[in-house]
Write a structure and sequence with these properties.
The structure holds 2 protein chains of 2 kinds. By secondary structure, chain A is mainly α. Chain A is built from 16 helices and 2 strands. In chain A, helix 2 crosses helix 15, helix 9 packs antiparallel against helix 12 and helix 10 runs antiparallel to helix 11. Chains A and B meet through helix 2, helix 8 and helix 14 of A and helix 1, helix 3, helix 4 and helix 17 of B.
Chain lengths: 327, 437
């Protein structure tokens, strides 16, 4: 290893333009450094102010009992973490988040793939259909939530009126007010909202699948279905794994849609970690407990993200390294 | 080539800076765009005022008052009218950031005591001595250690608002005075094919008010007073309150989907259901007529069909049968607000403004000179009950610190969902009180 640096130097670039290299390189290095600093500073600054600083503050708040105003004086150590982790509502919320993570992937993956494969075929109105699928994702989450809230009004909403025309009656507390139905209803709305993203990413991934491969498979006598299953979907792997990662992080941090549709209710049936901490903070003014919950949420999300990158995304990133190495 | 690259770099860097500068300017412009009143006459002093009369006549009236006062005094008043729940959330955030509005709504109780302790609110004892004298005992709820920190402008009690026509149709001649009569009325309304009561259990507190009311009927005054001080909820009367709520829920008087019904936002909220004649009654505070007016297209709410009766009597309760659950809103001034803010608050309590406030059914005036201005017969009846009550118990969630009140409300909400017993409510409340210690 120690010999290596010498070797390239021995065969220094023969071109005349490089004769003044030391001075020019220093100038370039300096300019390069300035360029890097100049371009990354705004982003780094924003990151520091809006991500790093709040996280540090949250950690600080989480070891105090604090009502949200006045000085931080009542140091309680890890007591807030104990109350959060022993609170049935919080552990229930963690369960809900994990359920949403799993169900989002289980429901949206096959659905998104199916729609993407269908939309990838040449057909009339392809553009329109793609747009329709993608519109819910573009819609503001709050607006979508309010619209669904109105559609799902118990007894008077569009959904129950439609059910009524075929002779069915909605539950007395409505779909969002019945503890057993609130979570499934939420999953349906989330699927409607986010399947568009999966479809969009999968469609983009499908563009990267060379047509020659499917053609070759077809020549070998593969059916359309076999072609998709054996050729296309395996090649979509990296896209699917990246989408699942985004979906997982989004599900862990889920807040807006739940807050608008149910507020975490009824009877804590749809509480997520995010609604729990907002409720503890703004409604009960237990900012210390809310901060502890936010740190727990952060750690859970971080650990899951790291594990996922280590064990699932590694294949893709390793591949990338190999490619770079070849070059 | 290098030159062009450097130039384009500089150009794009400049663009970023310009954009950033635009962003900053834009933000300020928005702030100024939000300012109202004063117009050309606006001076250097700017007062911010947050209130929750965000619908109908009340909104216009407050805007007008602010504009007039600003022009007369050469100041600027920034008015922010917000929906009630939004306002509470924003106020918490504002106090947290140390950037509270100059004039804001203060609800008294444990919350005010916290604000005073943290030095966030201005002592008005001397600056508004005249108004405090006029308001008399009403300021008691906003007094901490003999100093007055806010001027109550509307104090009311919680009772049942009902649709007189629907009651008549169902054959109910007299508003129920006891719970036996109430259950009878509920049966009659159901038999007539109507939904008897709407409750915004989705927001929690409207459901919790039922438990407060039963506790007020079951618990003697000294038990309640000492509970507020010592946070001790071991008295049997708190269990009895829960049992009565349980019995009421079992009678199924509430509107379809009440667990997810919001209190007062939108026509499908509990107030909206009463205003649009979908239910016969709702238990709610004195602000109900104003809220309902904002939720109907003609701005009338229920109009002359609206009636009011106090919470019915409970047999065998230890509480004073005339005592009422209630509370009010006061104008507080934040600690670093300019003196003009105090002047404006005093102006808001003047005979003239309180009369206008009462005439628009925006609430129940506290200024004793204008009691006769309350024209709505339902509100006038409520005012009579308020003034003859031996004491008005502040809503529990306000009287206690928020961490205790919040736990209490959440437990009561669970009972409405059939997932908590009377013992659970007391236990959850006590646990929150002990850890708030």
């Amino acid at each position: 290893m120690t010999v290596l640096p010498v070797a390239p130097r021995a065969t220094t670039d023969p071109s005349a333009g490089r004769a003044s290299r030391p001075a020019g390189a220093r100038g370039r290095d300096w300019r390069m450094a300035l360029e890097i600093v100049g371009f990354t500073a705004p982003a780094l600054l924003l990151f520091a102010v809006f991500v790093v600083w709040p996280i540090l503050r949250a950690v600080q708040f989480s070891v105090y009992r604090w009502k949200g105003f006045g000085p931080l004086v009542d140091f309680v150590g890890l007591q807030n973490y104990v109350s959060v982790l022993t609170d049935d509502v919080f552990t229930g919320a963690v369960g809900h988040n994990l359920l949403i993570v799993v169900l989002s992937i289980l429901v949206q993956l096959p659905l998104g793939l199916a729609i993407a494969l269908l939309l990838n075929r040449r057909m009339r109105g392809q553009g329109v259909l793609r747009t329709i699928i993608f519109v819910p994702y573009v819609l503001s989450e709050v607006i979508a939530g309010v619209v669904w809230f109105q559609l799902l009004q118990p007894g008077r909403g569009v959904v129950e009126t439609l059910l009524g025309t075929v002779g069915l009656e909605g539950p007395f507390q409505g779909f969002l007010g019945t503890p057993e139905l609130a979570m499934p209803t939420l999953i349906v709305v989330l699927t409607w909202k986010y399947v568009g993203l999966a479809v969009l990413l999968f469609l983009a991934g499908l563009q990267g699948v060379p047509a020659e491969l499917s053609e070759a498979a077809q020549i070998d006598g593969a059916t359309w279905w076999q072609t998709q299953w054996r050729v296309t979907i395996p090649l979509l792997g990296p896209t699917i794994r990246m989408w699942a990662f985004l979906s997982m992080i989004g599900s862990l941090q889920l807040f807006d849609m739940v807050w608008i549709l149910t507020g975490g209710g009824p009877a804590n049936a749809t509480t997520t970690m995010a609604t729990f901490l907002v409720n503890e903070g703004t409604k009960r003014q237990n900012y210390g407990i809310a901060a502890a919950a936010s740190v727990v949420l952060f750690v859970i999300a971080l650990v899951m993200a790291l594990l996922y990158q280590r064990f699932v995304l590694r294949r893709d990133t390793d591949d990338a390294d190999v490619v770079r190495g070849v070059r | 080539m290098k030159m062009t690259r450097a130039l384009s770099l500089m150009a794009s860097g400049g663009l970023v800076l310009t954009l950033a500068a635009c962003g900053g300017d834009g933000g300020e412009e928005v702030d100024e765009g939000g300012s109202t009143g004063g117009g050309a006459a606006a001076g250097d002093t700017t007062i911010t005022w947050w209130h929750n009369s965000n619908t109908g006549e009340g909104l216009e009236y407050y805007q007008q008052l602010a504009d007039d006062f600003a022009e007369e005094n050469g100041i600027t008043i920034q008015v922010e009218a917000m929906q009630h729940e939004d306002m509470l959330t924003q106020l918490d955030a504002a106090f947290q950031a140390g950037d509270a509005p100059d004039i804001y709504m203060e609800r008294g109780g444990g919350e005010l005591a916290d604000h005073v302790e943290a030095g966030l609110t201005r002592d008005l004892t001397e600056d508004a001595a005249e108004e405090i004298e006029l308001l008399g005992g009403t300021v008691q709820g906003w007094t901490v250690e003999d100093r007055v920190y806010a001027l109550p402008f509307s104090v009311g009690v919680v009772g049942f608002w009902y649709n007189t026509e629907m009651f008549e149709e169902a054959g109910i001649t007299e508003p129920p005075a006891t719970w036996d009569e109430m259950y009878e009325a509920i049966d009659q309304l159901k038999a007539a094919g109507m939904e008897p009561i709407s409750v915004g259990a989705g927001d929690g507190w409207p459901a919790a008010h039922y438990w407060y009311q039963f506790a007020l009927r079951h618990c003697a005054e000294d038990v309640l007073t000492s509970a507020v001080q010592s946070l001790d909820f071991s008295d049997q009367c708190f269990i009895s309150a829960g049992e009565d709520v349980e019995r009421l829920i079992a009678a199924e008087p509430f509107n379809r989907g009440f667990l997810s019904t919001p209190a007062q936002s939108g026509p499908t909220s509990a107030s909206g259901l009463l205003a649009t004649e979908q239910v016969a009654m709702e238990m709610q505070g004195h602000w109900e007529p104003g809220v309902m007016a904002g939720l109907t297209e003609d701005g009338e709410g229920l109009g002359d069909k609206l009636g009011w009766f106090p919470f019915p009597q409970v047999e065998g309760g230890q509480g004073d049968p005339e005592a009422q659950l209630g509370g009010g809103d006061a104008w507080g001034v934040s600690a670093d607000a300019p003196d003009e803010a105090v002047d404006f608050v005093r102006f808001l309590l003047s005979d003239e403004v309180q009369r206008g406030f009462a005439e628009r059914d925006m609430g129940l005036p506290t200024n004793p000179n204008v009691g006769d201005a309350v024209q709505d017969p339902a509100l006038a009846g409520l005012l009579e009950v308020r003034d003859s009550a031996p004491y008005v118990q502040l809503y529990f969630d306000t009287a206690f610190v928020q961490s205790v009140g919040g736990a209490m409300n959440d437990a009561i909400e669970l009972m409405f969902a059939g997932q908590a017993t009377p013992q659970d409510i007391v236990a959850d409340t006590q646990a929150a009180a002990d850890s708030a210690g």
